[in-house]
Amino acid sequence: MNIAVSGSTEGVPMRSQVQWIVRWENELQLADHIELSEFFRKSYGPTGAFNAQPFEGGRSWAGARPELRIIGYDNRGVAAHLGLLRRCIKVDEVDLLVAELGLYAVRPDLEGLGISHSLRVMYPFLQQLDVPFGFGTVRPALEKHLTRLVGRQKLATLTPGVRVRSTRPDVYLNVPPTRIEEVILVVFPISRAISEWPTGTFIDRNGPEL
User: What are 172-188's pLDDT values in tens digits?
Assistant: First the structure.
């Protein structure tokens, strides 16, 4: 599926007219992965060389590989990206199907193109997939970037102080194969109400972070 979706770019510099494309992972060609890997290196690089390192060698994912991507393009190439992966997580002792959202990035010159733009495009596809919830995590330092989701748009609920255990994407000698982080939980009610999200403050991904 390669679908162009128009999206609002309010607040984005006028020189950038962004077109959103929905792509399943098996539709991407080698050239797409190379272009995306360069985009991620440039987007994550300013936050530290360690964050850009997973995208070396034409790799367009950092941990788990997404199954569906929302990619924003303009006349300079890739402008923004959001990935989706359906998986079963465990909230305390409750198994739950979710669509994990992650691998979000925006080109440094387009800071006005917030995550809310890509989520508005992704939301209809979450509904088509008929998953109970969208799920994501952010580090506390990034909480301010999600305030629009729980403000005027009310797309998601944020819960701080949640611990999430994930497997590392690669196995290293003398390094534990899993890691636990305290994060802000982001839940998007899709086919079930937010009141049906299980109570609990410990989540097992049973796999690497998207």
Answer: 778 899 999 999 999 99
